[in-house]
Write a structure and sequence with these properties.
This protein has five helices and four strands, in the order H-H-H-E-E-H-E-E-H. A hairpin with a 7-residue loop joins strand 1 and strand 2. Helix 1 crosses helix 3 and helix 2 crosses helix 3. The longest helix has 32 residues.
């Protein structure tokens, strides 16, 4: 079995920036620009944001393609590369992990997970509505 990857600890602000990048990717299916990150965290210029991104790069959490505005890429552990955590309604214990095809990028896998979650929520709500409707008929 492969040893777990360990990376240097993040400061609270670096963690916030990394979480924002992950969330942005899930919602938009592409990464934020440096200016969008700066705006989110109230930076008047992009210098502070670039500092946080450089620290995240140095610590191995992201890579950047300097030639493009949306060049931020997450560096996820190998264990997470093909797996996605499904939120609350589908939890068994703490979480459910679904293996995705290796051809999916992490962003695509997260979108897949969110769509699956939405479909499961709709199905659960419909089932609950049907069960409530059946009780009224009794």
């Amino acid at each position: 079995m492969e040893a777990m990857e360990t990376r240097p600890m993040l400061t609270p602000r670096q963690k916030d920036v990394l979480d924002y990048i992950r969330d942005y990717l899930v919602i938009n299916e592409y990464p934020p620009t440096v200016r969008e990150i700066a705006r989110k965290f109230g930076h008047k210029s992009t210098n502070g944001t670039v500092g946080h991104l450089n620290a995240l790069m140095k610590k191995g959490y992201i890579t950047r393609l300097e030639i493009t505005a949306r060049g931020i890429r997450l560096v996820e552990s190998r264990m997470l590369a093909n797996a996605v955590t499904i939120p609350a309604a589908l939890r068994v214990g703490d979480r459910v992990v679904i293996e995705c095809p290796p051809s999916l990028s992490l962003a695509e896998a997260r979108v897949f997970a969110m769509k699956l979650y939405q479909m499961a929520t709709i199905a659960r709500d419909a089932k609950e509505k049907d069960e409530e409707g059946g009780k009224e008929d009794e």
